Request: fold
Amino acid sequence: MPNPQDSTSYSLVCTILPTFNERDNIKPLIERLLASVPSPYLVLVIDDNSPDGTWEVVERLASSYADFPNQKGVALVRRINEKGLTSAIREGIYQAIHTYKADIVTWMDCDLSMPPEDVFKLVQAIIEQGADVAVGSRWVSGGTDIAHGLMARILSWIINNFAILLLGDKAHDYTSGFIAARAEVLESIPLRGDYGEYCIDFLCQAGRRGYRLIEVPYVCVPRTSGDSKTGINLWDYLSKGRKYVATIVRLWRNKKN
Ligand SMILES: Nc1nc2c(ncn2[C@@H]2O[C@H](COP(=O)(O)OP(=O)(O)OP(=O)(O)O)[C@@H](O)[C@H]2O)c(=O)[nH]1
Ligand SMILES: [Mg+2]
Reply:
């Protein structure tokens, strides 16, 4: 359990949860997360009008965390006319920093593959170890991936090693998607891309601008409810992988961008 005494050097941490059809995952995720962090703390769900009614579950849950900003809070943005993972996180970052004045922002998948209890380890890497960006990593000592099959793990290995070769080894899990960062870093590096390639771009740019990256190991576990938005079939992996490779090559060619 984190020590609330640690909360002296920041005023608010906000975790953004981008959701599309995560009805059965979102409640346990929020409850486990909020049980493992000190106050004040905000969870901000960005839901793209999920047909399974994820947003309804969040609306109901939000009313039982009514003591924000003094205690822990849950807020919802239900987007009707927009869709997409990167744009959802971007929206969350904007709201977290400008509406709620968060100075540390984190985000993660909502399929319970990333343990909610590990979120505060990322935050502590910022508060206690002086990181500007903390990256949840499957590919450093202590981390691993027991969620994915052999094909997905091999593709992830190829993409990450290609990224390390061309962009450097400040990160070992360039496609992590499990991130905490100081607001100042997020203001200076807007997320670019449609899906997971934003993470390669963001980590590379943060490293190039001299921000301090710390990797925090985590164990990626299988989703137990709902459907994956990526791992539908080999074709889906390859078409997403193509964008990841294009992002790595663009960053390698253009050292300033
Ligand atoms: N708001 C929003 N969230 C999305 C969208 N697409 C995916 N997500 C969320 O993004 C996160 C990642 O999606 P996952 O289904 O876990 O897909 P993935 O992590 O790429 O694939 P796996 O490795 O199979 O888990 C989850 O929290 C999804 O609900 C979208 O269009 N809008
Ligand atoms: Mg996932």
Summary: The helical segments are 23-35, 54-62, 85-99, 119-127, 150-167, 183-188, 197-208, 234-253. The chain has eight helices and nine strands. Residues 234-253 form the longest helix (20 residues). Confidence is low (pLDDT under 50) at residues 1-8.
